[in-house]
Structures are given as C-alpha cells and as structure tokens.
Write a structure and sequence with these properties.
Elements: E1 4-13, E2 25-34, H1 38-51, H2 67-78, E3 84-91, H3 102-123, E4 126-132, H4 140-152, E5 163-171, E6 174-176
Parallel strand pairs: 1-4, 4-5
Antiparallel strand pairs: 1-2, 2-3, 5-6
C-alpha cells in the first residue's frame, strides 16, 4: 500500500542567541499537512489574508498582528481538521554550555522536532517532504551535514523511513535542496 505524502513546513520563533536581553525561550514549529490537502490549506490562508485585510501572497507574521487578528488566525487554523502543528519549546538557560552557539541550539531543537514529526507521519502511514524557512546566516549544507550526523547516531529516534531526503530550505528566491 502506498504511503500518504505529507508536506511539513518548519519555522522558528524567538532569538537563537543567548543574552541578557534575549528571550529565555526558543520555539520551533512544524505544520504538517497531507499533500492532497495542500491546495485547501492555501485557500484557507488566502481567506485569512482577506479577513485580515492583507494583500494576496502577503507573509502573515504573528508578531506583527494585533491581538484580535491573532485570535482570528488561531481560531481559523485550529478549525482545520487536516492540519497538525507540532512545537518544540526550549528554555535556553537550561541548555548545556556547548549549546551557546546559535547554530548548535537551532540544530538541537531541530532534532527533537524531527523526531516528533516523523512519529506522527509514520503513525499515520505517511512519508513527508520537509521544508525549512530561511534562517539568517545559516547554510543549507550545515543542515544536511547535521542530518547525516543524526542518521549515524543510534540514540536518535527519528523515523527516517517517514522522510523524503534531503530536506529543503526556502529562501527569498525559492526552495533549495
């Protein structure tokens, strides 16, 4: 039997860096949608943009929305039955000193998000294409290299059979492999 194809879109919130003026937390989230429902999700997002008075194709940034707009967005997305959102929240002050490097902290968080995404996708008989939002000053090769390290580590609980590799990263010019 063929596996269901999923699209997973990953983005982060918060500042990866440690510092006295930075947030204590870093969040990485994944939106998981069956590929067959991607057009439906895009239509829902288009309607949300209309509801919020935003132009077509405008990137909706939660941090730039009013409280009422945030509530509307959350209610609309929460009502989408085929959309699953997984979050990993890291308290940066609890990370080992070795994680004070912003890339190391990002990759550490990524590991736990990929584990959870693949558990969900695999448990639902699927396989996923994963696309990461562009990350300032972070090269796709570093991401691919880290995934290679994770694949070689038997303690990692990522279900590799649930992923199409390599993962992708969206840039302003489009997706890169």
């Amino acid at each position: 039997m063929a596996r269901t194809v999923y699209r997973v879109f990953v983005d982060e919130s918060g500042v990866r860096a440690h510092g006295p003026k930075t947030s204590q937390h870093f969040v990485m989230s994944a939106c998981i949608v069956p590929d067959a429902r991607k057009a439906d999700l895009l239509a829902t997002l288009a309607q949300i943009r209309i509801d919020l008075g935003q132009p077509a194709g405008h990137t909706i940034a939660f941090k730039n929305l009013s409280h009422q707009s945030r509530l509307h967005l959350a209610k609309k997305l929460g009502a989408v039955p085929y959309l699953t959102i997984s979050n990993v929240i890291v308290c940066k002050r609890e990370l080992p000193v070795a994680m004070s490097d912003v890339d190391a902290a990002y990759l550490y968080t990524l590991r736990y998000l990929l584990e959870r995404v693949t558990w969900f996708v695999d448990d639902h008989g699927g396989q996923a294409y994963v696309t990461f939002a562009h990350i300032d000053r972070f090269k796709i090769m570093k991401l691919h290299s880290y995934i290679g390290i994770l694949r070689a580590d038997p303690s990692v609980q990522i279900r590799w059979q649930a992923l199409f590799l390599p993962v992708r990263m969206e840039t302003m010019q489009g997706a890169t492999g």
